[in-house]
Amino acid sequence: MVNDRTLLTIKLAELPDDFGAIVAIRKTVFQIEQGVETALEFDGKDDEAIHWLAYLGARPVGTARVRFLDQSVAKLERLAVLPKARGQGIGTQIMQTAIAFLSQKNISEIRIHAQEPVKEFYEQLGFVSEGDRFYEANIPHFKMSKRLESISGRK
After folding, report:
1. Predicted pLDDT of residue 150
2. Which tens digit of pLDDT belongs to each residue from 5-59?
3. How far is CA 119 from the centre of its chain?
4. Would you state the pLDDT for residue 151?
5. Residue 139 scores a pLDDT above 80
6. What is the model's pLDDT at position 5?
7. Measured distance CA(90)–CA(82) in Å, rounded
8. What integer pLDDT is reported at residue 154 of this predicted model?
């Protein structure tokens, strides 16, 4: 879906060097576009997370982070793609990259809090809704999870 003339690259972010790009994307999407408060968006958990950055050419356009809740469960959070870069499959490719990475780490379950307007996006990636709608940062969300088969064959 990405324009062939513009190369999409997704890489593991290197902190603290790449954190400025991550902040810029998340500020644009979550704070400016959605009105999320700074203290909620930047919750002090970024240092314990693994982050991905998506680039169109040399321009950072998307990000996501993963935190490990225990040895077999990870929480994927803060998936964001800049408005001008949406509709090109970048969010899907970030998610597929993160899912593949977690499969190699023998993670058996990924959890997310999906905003209601993008719940179907996560369902298309194999996530299943758990429970009722709830509000986080005044935005309706659903708890969702995806079971992974690790490279060792464990489910």
Report:
1. 56
2. 579 999 999 999 999 999 999 999 999 999 999 999 999 999 999 999 999 999 9
3. 13
4. 55
5. yes
6. 59
7. 10
8. 43
What residue segments make up the domains of the chain, in order of their start?
Answer: 8-147
Looking at the chain, how many residues does it have?
155
Residue by residue, what is the 3-state secondary structure of the chain? CCCCCCCEEEEECCCCCCHHHHHHHHHHHHHHHCCCCHHHHCCCCHHHCEEEEEEECCEEEEEEEEEECCCCEEEEEEEEECHHHCCCCHHHHHHHHHHHHHHHCCCCEEEEEEEHHHHHHHHHCCCEEEEEEEEECCEEEEEEEEECCCCCCCC
Question: Looking at the domain that runs over 8-147, which CATH code has it been given?
Answer: 3.40.630.30
The neighbouring-strand residues paired with 49 are none
**108-to-8, 58, 70, 102, 145 alpha-carbon distances in Å:** 28, 34, 11, 8, 10
**CA dist 147 to 45, 93, 115, 150, Å?**
24, 18, 20, 10
Non-local CB neighbours of 141 within 8 Å, separated by 6+ positions: 113, 114, 115, 116, 133, 134, 135
Two tokens, residue 120: 């179907």
Residue 116 token pair: 């209601």
